[in-house]
Amino acid sequence: MKQVLIVDDSPIVRKYAKRILEELSFSTRDASDGQMALQACSLTMPDAILLDWHMPVLDGLGFLQSLRKMPNGSHPKVVFCTSENNAESIARAMSAGANEFIMKPFDKIIMQSKFE
Known about the structure:
Elements: E1 3-7, H1 11-23, E2 27-31, H2 34-43, E3 48-52, H3 60-67, E4 77-82, H4 87-96, E5 100-103, H5 108-115
Parallel strand pairs: 1-2, 1-3, 3-4, 4-5
């Protein structure tokens, strides 16, 4: 079973994403900020990461840049999930190593198209 790490400072978003991803037959773990996510990745690198942009401690972009420098850090598919919708933000995320980009709010159909 493929594992997805959900990284978002909102417990509601994490719970909603977890429910959708588990319905799609993924196992999930979660973290409330980028620093906790880096610690989780150092223990077990996930197959994919759903990543929020704006978080305390370490934001999504900082996490992504650090992740891609880790051993096996190029492996996970990273889907940025944010309310940022300007082209410059999307370009920054993609150049930092994001594979996909989805806007909040998301639903099961959107998640399925990005993770399957």
